[in-house]
């Protein structure tokens, strides 16, 4: 599926359930995107927004509903609002409409033609990893905001797996070290036996 210039996409098939609205689909390993999510949460006391990392299984039905591949979604933040998926600068401006003042005034930039806005947006998006860096794993929300993430269960499962994985890795390293020590301890006896054979 090739990249599209469309920044407002209507879904296919049946409408999304009512609870799947005002959803920010973000790149979970992008430091800039994670920072944006934290910025929105702090300025959204009414808890209007919900979030989901596009790398998660929970994001897949949304992407499929709007016929978006993950490659396309990686090019831009996606905001689902009233059965429409907004991309690139259109997403950022649509999000700003729900923010308190003075951020709400950013929506006035929608009078600028989309192609011009998207030139700036694309420049930031293309260079975001190089400039802002990326994480090895998706953001881990604190317990008080976890309910606002559609992929919360996946995050909890990942947290439960991590100590087990670390313990398994530690046990494996310990077993390897023990085997190495055993080999080292056996070497003097082998050397002594070899010396005895030579003397005979």
Q: How would you describe what is shown here?
A:
The structure is a single chain. The protein has 200 residues and is of the alpha+beta class. The protein has two domains: 8-150, no CATH class; 158-200. It is 49% helix and 10% strand. A five-stranded mixed sheet has the order 1-5-4-2-3. Helix 1 (31-42) links the parallel strand 2 and strand 3. The longest helix is centred in the C-terminal third of the chain and has 48 residues, at 152-199. The N and C termini lie far apart (78 Å). Residues 190-200 have low confidence and may be disordered.
Strand content: 5-15%
Shape: globular
Radius of gyration: 26 Å
For the report, how would you describe the main beta sheet? 5 strands, mixed
Number of strands: 5
State the secondary-structure class. alpha+beta
The number of domains is 2
**Secondary-structure element series:** EEHEHHEEHHHH
What's the overall average pLDDT, rounded? 83
**Low-pLDDT regions:** 190-200
Helix-strand layout with pairing:
Layout lengths: L7 E3 L12 E4 L4 H12 L7 E4 L6 H6 L4 H5 L3 E4 L2 E4 H9 L17 H13 L1 H5 L19 H48 L1
Brief write-up:
The chain has 200 residues and is an alpha+beta fold.
Q: Any key phrases for this structure?
A:
single chain; 200 residues; alpha+beta; five-stranded mixed β-sheet; 7 helices; 49% helix
């Amino acid at each position: 599926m090739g990249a599209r210039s469309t920044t407002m996409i209507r879904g296919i098939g049946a409408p999304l359930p009512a609870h799947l609205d005002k959803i920010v689909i973000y790149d979970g390993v992008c430091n800039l995107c994670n920072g944006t999510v934290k910025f929105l949460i702090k300025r959204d006391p009414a808890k209007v927004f919900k979030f989901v990392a596009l790398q998660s299984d929970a994001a897949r039905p949304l992407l499929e509903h709007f016929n978006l591949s993950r490659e396309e979604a990686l090019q831009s933040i996606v905001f689902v609002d009233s059965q429409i998926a907004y991309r690139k600068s259109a997403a950022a401006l649509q999000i700003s409409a729900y923010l308190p003042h003075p951020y709400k005034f950013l929506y006035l930039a929608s009078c600028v033609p989309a192609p011009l806005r998207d030139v700036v947006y694309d420049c930031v998006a293309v260079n975001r990893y190089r400039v802002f860096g990326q994480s090895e794993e998706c953001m881990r929300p604190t317990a008080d905001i976890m309910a606002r993430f559609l992929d919360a269960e996946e995050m909890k499962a990942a947290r439960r797996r991590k100590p087990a994985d670390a313990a398994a890795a530690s046990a494996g390293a310990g077993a390897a070290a023990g085997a190495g020590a055993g080999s080292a301890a056996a070497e003097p006896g082998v050397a002594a036996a070899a010396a005895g054979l030579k003397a005979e």
